[in-house]
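#structure-requests
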Amino acid sequence: MHLGKEKVLHGAQIYIDEYEKVNLTNTQFYIINTIQKLYPDKDVF
């Protein structure tokens, strides 16, 4: 079974090279906040 076979899939990837310079908690907050703004009718959780 190929989950995305013959479908257009969208997404984003984030690459972090220097973990010590990134606050991952804040990053997760900003991503969830942006998703809620883009899709207010959808339940993120």
